[in-house]
Write a structure and sequence with these properties.
- There is one protein chain.
- The strands form five sheets. The chain has a three-stranded parallel beta sheet, covered by helices on one side. Strands 4-7-10 form a three-stranded antiparallel beta sheet. A two-stranded antiparallel ribbon has the order 5-6.
- The protein is α/β, with parallel strands linked by helices.
- The termini are far apart.
- The chain folds into two domains: 7-81 and 191-209 and 217-291, 3-Layer(aba) Sandwich (Rossmann fold), CATH 3.40.50; 82-179, Glutamyl-tRNA Synthetase, Domain 3 (Glutamyl-tRNA Synthetase, domain 3), CATH 3.90.800.
- It is 31% helix and 17% strand.
- It is built from nine helices and twelve strands.
- It has helices spanning 20-35, 56-66, 82-94, 105-111, 161-165, 179-189, 205-215, 250-260, 273-280, and strands at residues 7-10, 39-44, 76-77, 98-101, 113-115, 118-120, 137-140, 147-151, 155-159, 168-171, 194-198, 221-225.
- Keywords: Aminoacyl-tRNA synthetase, ATP-binding, Ligase, Metal-binding, Nucleotide-binding, Protein biosynthesis, Zinc.
- Its cofactor is Zn(2+).
Length: 297
């Protein structure tokens, strides 16, 4: 498929019911894709089975259908793609772009400087595994250079993975592959051209772009939406059961999301979610997002 064809995606984690913040991401990515006459895919990011709430993946998909957020193609589950992630890890190891790490979190905290994203891994295991300690994770080698991301809403974002993040984990101690690796591999495999998601993931994007460069993959366009937060400024979270949306009353939830995103609202209550999308898709304006409030809901 040509990369000139718009392909977007919504990629929830099955850690609870769909809530207002995740519905904002779903609606924003859906409207952007449909406004550009593109495809909209759904991917369940269920890599970390320890955090998964049984039944929540099916519940999320059922909610999307209730909101008439109809996706293209089959739903992809990351838990079924671990062999591909393992192949990429081996590829990076063979190219000396990654290495085994046996450091515990306690050891890292004791030795690391603290950066904007937390402890900066000091490269302890770059020269080889410490004797007598089993290897538990794989880290990607980072370089001291700026990675620039031009976000469609947030503007230019700059990050130096080498100095601000350090060598980051691509396969965890427990054997699960890390989000940063899986999302890059899957976006490339699914030929995603445009990633529309919450602004809380903006700081992860340079790491993903860095990995794309190492693997020779094309970089998607990025648009990070304003975050829905509570009165104290804390991001709404499924883990905290914050503001779950009600699929049995879809129109009120969808109209609230459109209002939050500063999109025009229909002059009269639509008869159905499908009727609302007929109104909203041609009127989607990303420039309106600049005035979208992230004040408490």
């Amino acid at each position: 498929m040509s990369r000139t064809t718009y392909r977007g995606r919504f990629a929830p984690s099955p850690t609870g019911k769909l809530h207002f913040g995740s519905l904002v991401a779903a609606v924003g990515s859906f409207l952007d894709a449909r406004h550009h006459q593109g495809e909209w895919l759904v991917r369940i990011e269920d890599l970390d089975r320890t955090r998964e709430v049984p039944g929540s993946a099916a519940e999320i998909l059922s909610s999307l259908e209730a909101f008439a957020l109809h996706w293209d193609g089959e739903v992809i589950y990351q838990s079924r793609r671990t062999e591909r992630y393992a192949e990429v890890v081996e590829q990076l190891l063979a190219a000396d772009l990654a290495y085994p790490c046996s450091c515990s979190r306690k050891e890292i905290r004791e030795r690391a400087q603290i950066g904007p994203e937390g402890p900066i891994y000091p490269g302890t295991c770059r020269s080889g595994k410490k004797p007598g300690i089993a290897t538990n994770s794989i880290r990607l080698v980072t370089q001291d250079r700026d990675i620039l991301v031009e976000d469609r809403l947030q503007g230019m974002f700059r990050q130096n993975p080498g100095t601000e993040i350090g060598d980051f984990v691509i396969r965890r101690m427990d054997g699960y592959h890390a989000y940063q690796l899986a999302v890059v591999v899957d976006d490339a495999w699914q030929k995603i051209t445009d990633v529309v998601r919450g602004a809380d993931l903006l700081s992860s994007t340079p790491r993903q772009c860095y990995l794309q460069q190492l693997l020779g993959l094309e970089q998607p366009n990025y648009l990070h939406l304003p975050l829905a937060v509570d009165q104290s400024g804390r991001k709404l979270s499924k883990q905290d059961r914050d503001r779950p949306v009600e699929p049995k009353d879809p129109l009120n939830s969808l109209l609230s999301v459109l209002a939050f995103l500063q999109q025009p609202l229909p002059p009269e209550q639509p008869e159905s979610p499908e009727a609302l999308w007929q109104w909203a898709i041609p009127r989607w304006r990303t420039e309106s997002l600049r005035s979208a409030s992230s004040s408490g809901l």
